[in-house]
Write a structure and sequence with these properties.
This protein has 20 helices and two strands. It is mainly alpha-helical and 438 residues long.
Length: 438
Amino acid sequence: MKLSTDITLESGLIPKASFNYLPWLVCFASSLFFFYEFIQMNMFNAINTQLMQEYHLTAGALGKMSACYFYANVLFLLPAGSILDRFSTKKVVLIALTICATGTFLFACAHSLLLASIFRFLTGIGSAFCFLSCIRLASRWFPAERMALVSGLIVTMAMIGGMIAQAPLTLLVNTIGWRSAVECDALLGLFIALFIFAVVQDYPKNVATTYQQERLELQQFGFWRGLRQGFLSLQNWLCGIYTSLLNLPLFLLGGLWGSMFLATAHHLSHTKATYVTSMVFLGTIIGSPMMGWLSDKVGKRKLPMIIGAIFSFIVVMIILLSINLSFWTLILLFFLLGFVTSTQVISYPTVTESNKRLFTATCVSVVSLCAISGGAIFEPFFGWLMDYHWNGVMVDGLRHYSVNDFQFALRLFPIGVLIALGASFLVKETHCKPSYQE
């Protein structure tokens, strides 16, 4: 079927009646960058014990080392949105992914805590661009009424990366050692960069003139004025707070502390524990596109966000208050945790519909900045809470943390979810339509 050249400027995309594989291929290829970044973000859950032994770390020190990734994200997300709005998305993605893979390889080779932290920071620089670039491309290739579904599918790719960083990476580490496993991870990044180079296009060819005009308009608009459009919007910040706090289980349980918590509170082996933590990602893999589809189907953004926060509170309270649960009960609970918190993906189409398409990446960067700030703040803070509550017991030269230490720190979850629930009540409903006419 020949594609129509009649493009609706509100969506900037191909007509709904036409089917074309290219938008899906472009977004799939770009989402592999997000997939790769979630491996980097969550790999410490598989190698936390080895890192503590290698560098003689406390829980707080390990949290700070892991958070270097998020520190870089926070610093570079501010310019990342404007860079993606003004320059070729494909070129920016390739540069950022190369930086990320390089940082990962150097991290595997580092033999001092300072260098390892610096290279962890370098990895985080590249990842500042990953989700923004996916949303930037999706907003150019798909109509607004499909954005929640597409956003959910993009997040699904990231969650697959999070799952890879759990049991599969743990098994690889047990087989060839943590340094060699991380080197293999770096090599994977280079293969993904080659695929993106071959497949990704910045926008449909028949609307090239439109986007070049937008780029000129952005240059005339000015960098700081563009930032004000995104960062002075209360709607953007409410969505960012919601996303950040519902992402805490992914960052804290899936990314760093989950395997240690499960080994201590539920007496699982390290490998079995990573199978359980991977269920958070599996729940999000299934929940993200489902929540996106449901939001699109009912034509509402706010109500699904509220319901998701309520159920998230129930699940985190069960996990917080329970000890000595069976392996399969934990599998179910962690799956449900990922599933119900996946309503956080609805924040992204809410933001794109609430702002001018001209500033899509800049406005979405507000949400990403909040989400990543959650990791930067709460990973070391969780470790600090563990150290604060620690009773002084040492085992094999390392601090031994009790169930009570973990439960003390895990109080962050219900508090965070309640704040997210409050934010969702304040979000303005967009009814899945662009509310800012250009």
